[in-house]
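Predict structure. Chain length: 141.
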Amino acid sequence: MRATDWCLSSAGAALVLATSSDEQHPAESVVDGSSETFWTTTGMFPQEFIVGFPKCVKISKVAIQSYLVRTLRIERSLSEDPVGFEECIEKDLEHTEGQLQKEEFPLPEFQATYLRFIIKSAFDHFVSVHRVIAEGTAENT
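Prediction complete.
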């Protein structure tokens, strides 16, 4: 079975929560599949966003394209609603001057209905998130 990027709106993903809002750079940009568009935070940390999947999926790879993120935690939920999250990984990202941070997270395969991305700290007052990727397969239900 071919892996799908479940963090795409075209695959049924929905952005269900973001802790900051900017009309020019909406949070929905993280699931549109383009590195050209992005969500920007509006200061103060932590900041977070939650991506919901159309069904329970088995994730084998998680990645993020961002700018100025220092510490990121990724959590998952198996609930029908975005509650009951448990930590998957927390990592300090490398500062990449003038270019996107492209970070893949080494995780064992896991199931999820939601992923929560928590930006705990940054290299500046604001960060941008251009894409999130969660590759995997649909769970047989």
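Summary: The CA atoms of residues 59 and 136 lie 4 Å apart.
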